[in-house]
Hints:
Layout: H1 7-19, H2 25-44, E1 51-56, H3 60-74, E2 78-83, H4 92-100, E3 105-106, H5 109-120, E4 130-137, E5 140-156, E6 159-168, E7 178-184, E8 190-197, E9 203-207, H6 213-225
Parallel strand pairs: 1-2, 3-4
Antiparallel strand pairs: 4-5, 5-6, 6-7, 7-8, 8-9
Helix pairs in contact: 2-3, 3-4
Amino acid sequence: xxxxxxxxxxxxxxxxxxxxxxxxxxxxxxxxxxxxxxxxxxxxxxxxxxxxxxxxxxxxxxxxxxxxxxxxxxxxxxxxxxxxxxxxxxxxxxxxxxxxxxxxxxxxxxxxxxxxxxxxxxxxxxxxxxxxxxxxxxxxxxxxxxxxxxxxxxxxxxxxxxxxxxxxxxxxxxxxxxxxxxxxxxxxxxxxxxxxxxxxxxxxxxxxxxxxxxxxxxxxxxxxxx
Length: 226
């Protein structure tokens, strides 16, 4: 059996490498994560059809885990990260690598990301399809799936607005809020309605009450020309 360093011995070795050899801590973390990712790929071979789950703590070992997750995801693997603590509780190189994990959105910024994906054509909305996003949630980074219900017409204070209805699969999960969203193609795929549920009894229904600036300007110009 190969000897394994204790946590204290490993910290001492890291400190020596940084102080004596001049190797930045971030480079050490990248090397550790790269080595682990290579071992995983060599041990289990092609993992494109395998789900990979990585548990990340709050310390530097957790930072190594975020490096592994990033490298495997960049290589096309389906990676899920279970984090002991949210990103804003991490420090130093561990936090840097958690924030480098590509495509991760928090609960609010996911809608900005989806607007960009739909508007740019990077993701197409098709009734019966699905949209997947990595999402930073309390205590973990998770994969969030929205089912594309279809096109619906919403009644708004400035008239009817056609919009695509997306519904999350995690409705009823007490640990997170479930948010249904409606994106309007005529308004550059901005979310025009958000239905935020904690339970069947507790929810907030937000509907846009005026035209956004980029849509109001063309509308004003058209009215002036009549």
